[in-house]
Write a structure and sequence with these properties.
It contains 19 helices and 14 strands. With 429 residues, it is of the alpha/beta class. The chain folds into 3 domains: 158 residues, Nitrogenase molybdenum iron protein domain (Rossmann fold, 3-Layer(aba) Sandwich), CATH 3.40.50.1980; 122 residues, Rossmann fold (3-Layer(aba) Sandwich), CATH 3.40.50; 112 residues, Rossmann fold (3-Layer(aba) Sandwich). Strands 1-12-11-10-13-14 form a 6-stranded parallel sheet, with helices on both faces. It has a 4-stranded parallel sheet with strand order 3-2-4-5, sandwiched between helices. 47% of the residues are buried. The structure holds iron/sulfur cluster (SF4). Iron/sulfur cluster binds next to α3. The site of iron/sulfur cluster (SF4) has 12 residues, from α3.
Length: 429
């Protein structure tokens, strides 16, 4: 770690945090399937769960009804719960039928849920068994999307962490062989393509992405891999990558003009890119982003925002709103505060902003009502009651469903926060 990064991290570590434990209002990790199945074109997500799990997925991904679905739920019914049926035999049958009908599947995830955890169905063993019978054409992996003590973006973390042991080793070359860059976190393809062009202009490469678009394109990882997190909720994935010897490049997240520049600069510094080349490669994108964000400043500057813990994107979003749009973050609540991964972000948050980790929803609602924020960013469960009380809200899940990373999405990101305020202002007229 550079001396500067060490100092930043130390200062960020001193920031007081309000820690709360109590009732929480969040979606579970199954939600991640909605964006992950779009990203990995030959992956299939088979949730081993209940009718509730199936309903959650169907309503969250309702827009996909015209496509050949790439997720389904194997329902655990009362007989399974009562231990009267052999759940493993049924699972084998379901998977067998699925793979027979869908030769396009290259990677099958068995996704655990609350019910599969309750009946202690060993999906790790099931995945190994099914992997043996389905190989070499299909890989079968597993992870948990259960809502027991997790939040919805952890589904992506669990899924990517399950992929890491499957990544091929780096080619056995001399130790001085060139390093590669791995961008970690599901990004929309349009964002990925823009980032590829920027890294190429910087002379950084080879650049690979996790998750890849196809199972057959799993990127290699090892001691000659540097990785940049594109999302702040990938603690477990980062940990297992580090176990394989890969090195995390510490950086803020690529949200907004400033965040994207700082994220790219962290990679450029690790690669020894000359400052002139860096400016040349990023100046036009940064200018476009600043102009697009600037169009929303009049609507947002001076207005206050309160974040309830939900997506784990809260800290970088608050940093973006404060520094690029002049908003005042009153409280930034996040389900988990990963001090190391967020050190650079915490350093950029206004000093007076309250940071809270975990949730005691009633107490937080009291603080929110007392603060009377102009905008609340929260989960769907809280949005309706707060709207009914006259408070404008933004659903945090939209921040994950919408492509918001990089220069060319910075204006769209700002617009996500302008819209609810605009709607409320119009309702008042
Ligand atoms: S995994 Fe748990 S929290 Fe998620 S839908 Fe199923 S039962 Fe509900």
């Amino acid at each position: 770690m550079s001396a500067i990064a060490a100092t930043l991290g130390a200062r960020a570590a001193e920031r007081p945090v309000l820690r709360e434990r109590g009732q929480r209002e969040v979606f579970c990790g199954l939600t991640g399937i909605v964006w992950l199945h779009r990203k990995m074109r030959d992956a299939f997500f088979l949730v081993v769960g209940s009718r509730t799990c199936a309903h959650l997925l169907q309503s969250a991904a309702g827009v996909m009804i015209f496509a050949e679905p790439r997720f389904a739920t194997a329902i655990i019914d009362e007989r399974d719960l009562a231990g009267m049926a052999d759940a493993n035999a049924e699972l084998d049958r379901v998977v067998g039928r699925l793979l027979e009908r869908r030769p396009d599947i290259g990677l099958l995830f068995l996704v655990g849920s609350c019910p599969s955890e309750v009946i202690k169905l060993d999906l790790a063993r099931a995945a190994k068994r099914l992997d043996r019978s389905a190989s070499p054409g299909v890989r079968v992996l597993h992870y948990s999307g259960s809502g027991i003590e997790t939040t919805f973006t952890q589904g992506e973390d669990a899924c990517l962490a399950a992929l890491v042991p499957e990544l091929p080793a780096e080619a056995p070359e001399a130790p001085e062989a060139p390093r590669s860059l791995l961008v970690v976190g599901a990004l929309a393809e349009v964002v990925e393509d823009q980032l590829r062009r920027l890294f190429a202009a910087l002379g950084i490469g080879p650049v690979r992405f996790l998750p890849p678009r196809l199972a057959a394109e799993l990127p290699p990882a090892g001691p000659r891999t540097d990785f940049l997190l594109a999302q702040p909720f990938l603690a477990e994935t980062a940990r297992v990558l580090e176990e394989r010897g890969a090195r995390r490049i510490a950086a803020p997240f690529p949200l907004g003009a400033e965040g994207t520049t700082l994220w790219l600069r962290a990679a450029a510094e690790a690669w020894g890119v000359a400052p002139d080349r860096f400016r040349e490669a990023t100046a036009a994108g940064e200018k476009r982003a600043r102009e697009a964000v600037g169009r929303h400043r009049a609507a947002l500057t001076g207005r206050s925002v309160f974040f309830f813990p939900d997506s784990q994107l809260e800290v970088p979003m608050a940093r973006f709103l404060a520094r690029e749009l002049g908003m005042e973050p009153i409280e930034v609540g996040t389900p988990y505060l990963h001090r190391q991964h967020l050190a650079e972000e915490l350093e950029l948050l206004p000093a007076g902003t309250v940071l809270s980790e975990g949730q005691h929803v009633e107490r937080q609602l009291d603080r929110c009502r007392a603060a009377k924020p102009d905008l609340v960013v929260c989960g769907l469960g809280l949005a309706n009651p707060l709207e009914a009380e006259g408070i404008a809200t933004k659903w945090s899940i939209e921040l994950v469903f919408t492509p918001v990373q990089g220069y060319d999405q910075a204006g769209d990101l700002a617009a996500l926060f302008t819209r609810p305020l605009d709607r409320r202002d119009r309702l008042r007229v």
